[in-house]
Amino acid sequence: MNEEKTIVEQLKEELCLDLKNSALIMEDEEIIAADNFSEGYKAFLTQCKTEREATAFAVKAAQDRGFVPFDSKKKYKAGDKVYYVNRAKAIILATFGKKSLGEGVRMVASHIDAPRLDIKPNPLYEDSELALLKTHYYGGIKKYQWVAIPLALHGLVVLKDGTSLEVTIGEREDEPKFVITDLLPHLGAEQAKRPLSEGIKGEELNVLIGSRPFKSDTGSELVKLNILKLLNEKYSMIEADFLSAEFEMVPAYPASDIGLDRSMIGAYGHDDRVCAYPSLQAALECDNPEYTAVTVLTDKEETGSAGNTGLESAYLRDFIADLAAGQDMRARDVLRKSKCLSADVNAAFDPTFPNVHDKLNAAYINKGIVVTKYTGSRGKGGTSDASAEFMGEIRSLFDKAGIIWQTGELGKVDEGGGGTVAQYVANLDVDVVDVGVAVLSMHAPFEVVSKLDVYMAYKAFKAFLV
């Protein structure tokens, strides 16, 4: 009996898939390294709540590591480091490899935009002696999650005279916060009858920004006038300047540890900065790669990647074309030999809501980085489906590099789904697969990830680029 049990155990070990919690596999020293890495990531999340801020962070970090602006007229050699910024909202970093570009590049692509509330072009109004800003939500959100939480205003305004000003209000302790009010439960009987998706409607996401009127005995909308006066005094703004502003309302709290064991990170913007930060750090440490290493931090993924800073545009293809021209090659010859990790998140299994997941094909917190063969919805609509050959290549790479990884789908087949930038990279004739971190409460103003998974993402991207 004991011998038979031993045989069974041996066969299970050899033949069966057994996903363990990373903390049971990793050495203590590596867990400490993961916790230390997460401190830098938390600081990044707290500092960078918009795509512009994340791009500026990446530019500074790249310059500190010897990267220089890319010059399409210059010839580069192995080990040279360059970066290209697209309209202050996206950035590409490249380190030239030992091999010719004719062998292709190794690319990691993540996005730095996140669901949020954009301020409308003509937003400021007064009602019942309260001043408010009208918003238009960006990306897929549950609107009710954005009420009754502290908000901060981030963005850029171009004044009438052409001056550009960066604006951030609400992040420091001594600064005011903003809020979207909700109906008290005592008077919320009719609101409670609404479907959950309409508990708060889009046109009800109005941000409270003031209540004191300009001191005058005459005139109307004196609270609005006082707000405009304050904006003018601090930023030289007039009301018309909202028309040439990009203002975003984002949660006004920092990233923080979650759990008595401090094993997780709670923050706004894990999707997809939880992949952007590790991929950036991997790129910065990629000094002498075999293949040219290209890292893309892109914009507009949450709204479909359209627009000139999203990956449906030509800017990545044209950057590769410029690299290729520097070695007297055609872009298509480089791209067809290239390989890419589409670095985006997956939904972590939540035991409170188990019915939307196929437990055999779900991603789990603390079980490593998630390799997602395809995303999309229902009949694999709107996805890139990685080939068996490329899946085998990535599997072998991660195993050899000691990367803890798992596979996962974005919920049950008919529950919904979602997409990533993988399809747009694949359209360039590049082999691509989604690889990212599992996230709890995805698209909420406060998402949760595992520190060990964040560190595995960094290790995976570094192994792929090097």
Please characterize this protein's 3D structure.
There is one protein chain. Helix content is 29%, strand content 24%. It is of the alpha/beta class and 466 residues long. It has 2 domains: 299 residues, Aminopeptidase, CATH 3.40.630.10; 136 residues, Roll (Aminopeptidase i, Domain 2), CATH 2.30.250. It has a 9-stranded mixed sheet, sandwiched between helices. It has a 7-stranded antiparallel sheet with strand order 8-7-11-5-6-10-9, covered by helices on one side. A hairpin with a 3-residue loop joins strand 2 and strand 3.
Summarize the structure.
This protein is α/β, with parallel strands linked by helices. It contains 12 helices and 23 strands.
Share of β-strand residues: 15-25%
Quickly count the helices. 12
Range of helix content:
25-40%
Runs in which pLDDT lies below 50 for 5 or more consecutive residues are none
User: In CATH, what is the class of the largest domain?
Assistant: Alpha Beta
By CATH, the architecture of the largest domain is named: 3-Layer(aba) Sandwich
For the report, how would you describe the main beta sheet? 9 strands, mixed
Strand order of the largest sheet: 1-2-3-14-4-15-21-17-19
Based on the structure, what is the oligomeric state of the protein chains? single chain
What's the shape? globular
Q: Could you say how many structural domains there are in total?
A: 2
**Backbone structural class:** alpha/beta
* Fourth CATH level, the homologous superfamily of the largest domain: Zn peptidases
Can you count the beta strands? 23
